[in-house]
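Exercise 7. Given the encoded structure of a 185-residue chain, write a plausible sequence.
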């Protein structure tokens, strides 16, 4: 691959990301969503990031320490950053974990409707746009009689133990058991 091809690819990805951000903001406005949640480790362009940040109800999820440090330098966004545990996640899992962490911090409420953006950090492309009704997404916890706020606080605390080193807390054999342990199941 030549430098010219690399430049074309970077321009294409920036174009895709810009379009995804624009569509997410328009969709949020159209459906009266409470917030746009974006997995920002994916966004490599400062221009795209600043376009997203201009949205007053934008919540920024990141797992990269470098990305979080860069975000914290931008005025007015520090209180909208969600630190996601450092583990391999599918695009849907990126959003679900960000929503749980947002719930635990009070950035997201159980009755919120969210427009969510995620993608591949490897390629820097936003390629997933979805709408999440938080109450419905986590209804399985309510059905079991668990208070979602208690679950997400426990989940967040457990994940914080995991996050720095990528290892599991004592007694958890895998990440599925970790989530079950956090939920008290």
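Solution.
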């Amino acid at each position: 691959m030549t430098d010219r091809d690399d430049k074309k690819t970077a321009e294409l990805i920036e174009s895709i990301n810009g379009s995804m951000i624009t569509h997410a903001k328009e969709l949020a406005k159209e459906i009266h969503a409470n917030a746009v949640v974006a997995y920002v480790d994916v966004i490599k362009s400062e221009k795209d990031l600043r376009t997203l940040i201009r949205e007053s109800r934008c919540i920024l999820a990141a797992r990269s320490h470098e990305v979080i440090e860069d975000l914290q330098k931008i005025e007015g966004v520090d209180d909208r950053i969600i630190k996601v545990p450092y583990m391999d996640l599918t695009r849907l899992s990126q959003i679900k974990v960000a929503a749980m962490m947002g719930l635990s911090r009070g950035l997201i409420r159980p009755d919120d409707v969210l427009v969510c953006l995620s993608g591949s950090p490897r390629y820097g492309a936003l390629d997933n746009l979805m709408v999440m009704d938080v109450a419905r997404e986590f209804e399985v916890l309510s059905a079991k009689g668990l208070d979602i706020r208690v679950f997400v606080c426990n989940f967040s605390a457990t994940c914080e133990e995991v996050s720095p080193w990528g290892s599991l807390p004592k007694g958890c054999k895998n990440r599925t058991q970790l989530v079950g342990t956090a939920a008290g199941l």
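Remark. The longest strand covers residues 125-133. Students should compare their own answers with the one above.
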